[in-house]
Specification:
This protein has twelve helices and twelve strands. The protein has 343 residues and is α/β, with parallel strands linked by helices. The strands form two sheets. Strands 3-2-1-4-5-12 form a six-stranded mixed sheet, with helices on both faces.
């Protein structure tokens, strides 16, 4: 039984997982309402909230544990906000001592990378190794507020980065664009809502690194392009143009993600499955575009379940199960945080 802890940013999360039964429970507290007042995550406040919320979340988890002790504790030890990671790791060390069980550190990004396979495991509890093997090699895209990473998982379950952003992540680009447009935080969902009634071809925003020889993402220039366009629009026209601006801006982001993924499918394939994970994976237009892409390639799209796209402990428990070699083994509970670690 794996007991998992996630606290890399502004979600306090716990989960219980066993290979034979799957997820036994998930407990998440979001700090969204607190941070939206400030237009973004405030690290000190996020750390304070973890300290306040983990005790009652643990009480809820103990109802499912019913006196049993986990056989392994898995905790996110990077990347993320240093203070937030430190609180999660401190809780993990305390529980490991109290329960006298091993402790491992899990890479938050690898949790996202494997999260689309959680549903595969749930559907094939008795034959997951073979079900997973049938979906490899796999091409996956992690797209969130802090990360945009295109990667491959080969038949030996080794991860290789194929492309990543050189500046802003896609989610950050959406949130910053929304802020320029005067929309509330987090901006991505507000852009998506307005884009549904807009014309995606109304404005021509740039798509960086169009060539297949340039396996990179970039979204900072897109934000700058929006700012320059807004400076040319009269204030009384801006509100009328808002749906079209959002639709065109969102489409530029999705085009960049889709094009580079298509290039990777051609250059590094063949792939047996396509994955989509991270907070921006909840965007319906993006999921639809990737479903079409997978359909054209005649491969399944494995999109993380909506509750597993944001920061959650279920993906941390699952990564500890399927990717133990990449976990940081803690000797004498000396696990250190790594705020800037990569995939």
């Amino acid at each position: 039984m794996i007991f998992a802890i996630e606290s890399s940013c502004d979600e306090s999360a716990l989960a219980l997982f066993t290979p034979s039964e799957g997820l036994l429970g998930e407990w998440v507290h979001s700090q969204l309402d607190l941070h939206k007042i400030y237009g973004g995550v405030v690290p000190d406040l996020a750390s304070r909230e973890h300290l306040a919320n983990f005790p009652w979340l643990l009480q809820e988890a103990q109802k499912v544990l019913a006196g049993r002790k986990p056989t392994l504790i898995a905790v996110t030890h990077g990347p993320g906000l240093a203070g937030c990671l430190a609180l999660g790791v401190a809780l993990a060390k305390s529980l490991a001592l109290a329960w006298e069980c091993p402790l491992v550190g899990v890479n938050h990004l690898r949790g996202h990378a494997f999260s689309p396979f959680i549903a595969t495991h749930a559907a094939a509890l008795n034959d997951f190794p073979n079900a997973w093997k049938s979906l490899l090699p796999h091409l996956g895209l992690i797209v969130s507020g802090g990360n945009t990473v295109l990667f491959a998982i080969d038949r030996e379950r080794q991860l290789t980065i194929l492309a990543q952003t050189v500046d802003d992540a896609a989610g950050e680009g959406l949130d910053k664009g929304a802020k320029l447009l005067g929309l509330p935080y987090p901006g991505g969902p507000h852009i998506e809502k307005l884009a549904a009634t807009g014309d995606p071809k109304a404005y021509d925003f740039p798509r960086a690194f169009p060539s297949a020889s340039e396996m990179h993402f970039s979204f900072s220039g897109l934000k700058t392009s929006l700012r320059y366009l807004m400076e040319k629009l009269p204030d009384d026209e801006l509100q009328q143009c808002l749906p079209n601006l959002c639709a065109s801006y969102q489409t530029a982001v999705i085009d960049a993600l889709s094009r580079k993924t298509t290039q990777a499918l051609t250059q590094y394939g063949p792939f047996v499955s396509l994955g989509l994970s991270g907070g921006v994976a909840n965007n319906k237009a993006l999921r639809s575009r990737f479903a079409d892409l997978a359909s054209r390639r005649r491969i399944p799209l494995l999109a993380a379940h909506p509750r597993h796209t944001g920061d959650n402990a279920a993906m941390i428990a699952f990564a500890a199960y399927v990717d133990p070699a990449a976990c940081k083994q803690s000797i004498a509970h000396d696990l250190a945080i790594m705020p800037s670690m990569g995939l």
